[in-house]
């Protein structure tokens, strides 16, 4: 029987190795995960549905993660016949009709699925405080949020319930929680991961599924296993010809040229903690022989964020129509949370021409970043502008909700200012992550700093499309240094 400390010391790769060698069974791992969950989840609210008995009885494949317990994010990572709420009170009781392709691939990798994690309604926020399930809390300090939208997932890994967890990223939803909870969070290149069935373009290509992990090698091994050329997908990227897990430890063949910026792309403030975290990494890279240079990428961040919100509004408006058709009635503001309502109202007035021009703005930004990467291997920024916000800080009050309802009704002809103002407090915390979603580039948040308030904050690296190997090599190099700051914590342990 594994002790708690033994369980917490293992990453997913090591767990699978022990199962393969007969040192432990997958049932022992599931039981250890369950015991840890029972200890910390009442405080953290990271896990919303359990399937531990299913996991104990699950036949697992002999893949690289054979027998390892894994939690799924309850928004797009579905198992047929099981709950899929997407954090929405309107979806309470909704049952998935099929396994997602990602879940099928994860099953092939050998994972056993132990439950589902909390997420904000439809993944729209960088915090995890849905009305349906209540807030998830940060294991480093339970008065703070773990971020979002993969906040339940981040809290589950940071507290040691599982070593790696299902997550997704449509605007930073892997990288923001990674920064706030001290984890490694990689968003792969657009077209690298499986999608669907029934969805060919997640948020028009902005969103992708992957994981959060404590070790770089876990993400590298899984990236090898999940990368796919999927005929029915809207976007494709050629398979990597090497092996990520092997190549991440290879030295760089020549010094890297690294661009960086510590300025918010939307002109908001950036904390000294975020700047210090970035500077620590830059100093380390210079001592390793790499060349670093501050660079302005030339992209109008405010204008690009407006296009991001316009996409959100179109997606939420279409989703609302689907739900209304299914229910046979119109939705009201009482049915959905305020962000969903305002976005879906705004989307009703967006013309096809406006939506098409908006997507063209994504392509323009991608072209500018391609120019940057013609000259520089990597582009570094803070992962977030601040450490994690307090629980409740970014949730709108009832009075604010009523104001927003009136504002979007009044300004439907020109909704972007309303959308921008609604999200600005949240955007101030995380202005750096959305760019990679719109350009399709891979990006990763790396846990390299603990701020004076005792909370972690990460540094983000972006590479050109298809170059996840560079990000993994950089992260592995940092992981071997004194900068890496990953520990298992829980609210009850620390506070």
From TrEMBL:
The keyword Hydrolase applies. Keywords: Hydrolase. One of its GO terms (molecular function) is amidase activity. It is an enzyme of class 3 (hydrolase). Residues 28-472 form the Amidase domain. Pfam families: Amidase. Its EC number is 3.5.1.4. The keyword Transcription does not apply. Belongs to the amidase family. This is Amidase. It comes from Salicibibacter cibarius.
